[in-house]
Amino acid sequence: MSHRLPPLIALRAFEAVARTGSVRAAGDELSVSHTAVSRHIQNLQNRLGVAFFERNGRGLTLTGSGERYYQKICRAFEAITLATSELKPDLPTQLDIWCTPGIASIKLLPRLPDLESYLPRCDVALRPTRRRPDLTTNEADAEIVFLFDGEEREGCHVEVLNRPRMFPVASPSFLGRHGPVSCVDELLKLPLIHEESTGQWERWFDRLGRSGPLSLRGPKLWNGQQTIESALLGQGVAMTGSLLVDQHIETGELVEVLSTNVHLGSYCLVTTKSRSVTAPILALRRWLADILE
């Protein structure tokens, strides 16, 4: 039985555009002109009778059919890449990952042994840190970091892993002492726990329409995990995301102080463009998707 598959070059063009969101970026990655990429995409859509993309400002977004097709196509390319990598004697023996401390400790570390099944014969070095690596000089292979909306890593490949809702939390004992909070003005009167600076809280208040100078009192801690621990101890109100505190809320250790629907940014996997399509990074991406989606 013969398989009437679309041309591989057209599938590669589709996968690259779907992943990067840009015809030009896909052309740069595949070392062909953007007009050639556009032609391959158009031929693929005509062949299958499906529209895969729609224009979104200066970029492209997948249609529903395009998203479903991409999820299957990208897994097929990952399988080919991983199978090919097993034939190479020069596979990297270590994958260096720098990660935001809260995500590293709360989400990744408990399941780190599972990564071995994704990366056989490759040692994983996970470094929880707030310092940003220079990926272009091979200081790290990949970075898992929270990027605020509009924040970019020039010259790098950035893939969104999770876009959490951001909200204030406190312990029941703290709220018992200070009373319930029903509005932003009441929240501003409480001690707020800050992650290194007041910037995150300022962004959050700005999304709620409270811009301008604010008097934000409270301790400044080193990372998000410490702000959560401080809130658990009843020391104030912490700003955090659903990804990090869902378990504490389910057990009643923390309470959402004020119900809002604010998003400030996303947790992202950042690599160099050339490294983003290598077998270890593809395996890492698949593992992270299982944990963070």
UniProtKB/TrEMBL annotation:
UniProt cross-references to Gene3D superfamilies, sorted A to Z: Periplasmic binding protein-like II (3.40.190.10), Winged helix-like DNA-binding domain superfamily/Winged helix DNA-binding domain (1.10.10.10)
InterPro entries listed in its UniProt record: LysR-type_TF_proteobact-type, LysR_HTH_N, LysR_subst-bd, WH-like_DNA-bd_sf, WH_DNA-bd_sf
The keyword Transferase is annotated on this UniProt entry: no
Keywords for this protein: DNA-binding, Transcription, Transcription regulation
Superkingdom of origin: Bacteria
Family label: Belongs to the LysR transcriptional regulatory family.
Protein name, as recorded: LysR family transcriptional regulator
